[in-house]
Specification:
Order of helices and strands: EEEHEEHEHHHEHEHEEHH
Bound molecules: adenosine-5'-triphosphate, magnesium ion
Structural class: alpha/beta
Distance between the termini: 40 Å
Shape: globular
Strand order of the largest sheet: 6-7-8-3-9-10
Oligomer: single chain
Number of helices: 9
Helix content: 25-40%
Radius of gyration: 18 Å
Length: 252
């Protein structure tokens, strides 16, 4: 369970989060939609502890993430993983090293013990194959296409198998077939890990495929949150616009 209360964040003179409230249930996939620049990535960064709120609290599985610092914070966020919007691969590491990064850094998220090298190799291979990236282990991120880098970022996240998974735009820039494979992978990973996932996306097809619940981030807050059927009926211009783009593709 993730519980966010009265979250405020300002950069310079721009109020991005303005008293945002959100509860994410254990075991669900929550999809967050919202216009560009509204603060969706900022919100995910607060949940994983990279950004500190000006005001308000973030509680994850009973721990007040927003009050922790340094090693306490590091320990508390070990069971979380994030796919960053720009993939955020390490340029100087091969794809194999990138994919192994959290496994090596944190060890087993359940026991905290280091993994043997052979286990790491096997997990990396499995994760790369799950995202359709076999054979690129020795390549550098700069040798891959944008879509391949995105999938490598995803492999790094699912290889680690954290119990809370944050995905920032997992299907953006991918072709429709790969995007659908990623959607299926997100659902499959969720079912296997029995974790909690938050997915930020602009892709309404992806959103409706994966979501248990949908949220609209607007004006610094979560303006609406509901199960897909109810959500799509909400009288809000952004939601109705998305609905129109969705149904207009149906008769094809
Ligand atoms: N570290 C920072 N310093 C200053 N401003 C920031 C910082 N991080 C985010 N912002 C600002 O906060 C606002 C929200 O950014 P954010 O990246 O969360 O948007 P977003 O909803 O994820 O948009 P998109 O859909 O385009 O990814 C933007 O105006 C951005 O410029
Ligand atoms: Mg973003």
């Amino acid at each position: 369970m993730i519980r966010i209360k009265n979250l405020w964040k300002r950069y310079g003179n721009l109020d991005v989060l303005k008293g945002l409230e959100l509860e994410v249930k254990q075991g669900e996939i929550l999809v967050i939609l919202g216009r560009s620049g509204v603060g969706k990535s900022v919100l995910l960064k607060h949940i994983i502890g990279i950004e500190k709120p000006d005001q308000g609290s973030i509680e994850v599985s009973g721990v007040m993430i927003s009050e922790l610092k340094k090693n306490d914070l590091y320990q508390a966020v070990k069971n979380m993983g994030m796919l960053f919007q720009g993939s955020a691969l390490f340029d100087s590491m091969t794809i194999e090293e990138n994919t192994a990064f959290y496994l090596q850094q944190h060890g087993d998220p359940v026991t905290g013990k280091p993994f043997p090298a052979s286990t790491i190799r096997q997990k990396v291979e499995e994760a790369l194959s799950m995202v359709g990236l076999e054979g690129v282990e020795k390549k550098m991120p700069s040798d891959l296409s944008g879509g391949m880098r995105k999938r490598a970022g995803l492999a790094r996240l699912i290889a680690y198998r954290p119990s809370i998974l944050l995905y920032d735009e997992p299907t953006t820039g991918l072709d429709p077939i790969t995007a659908q494979q990623i959607n299926e992978l997100i659902v499959k990973t969720q079912n296997e890990l029995k974790g909690t996932s938050i997915v930020v996306t602009h892709d309404i097809h992806s959103a409706l495929f994966i979501a248990d619940r949908l949220a609209l981030h607007q004006d610094g807050k979560i303006a609406h949150l509901a199960e897909p059927k109810e959500f799509m009926k909400i009288d809000n211009p952004i939601i109705q616009f998305m609905k129109k783009t969705y149904t207009s593709r149906e008769p094809l």
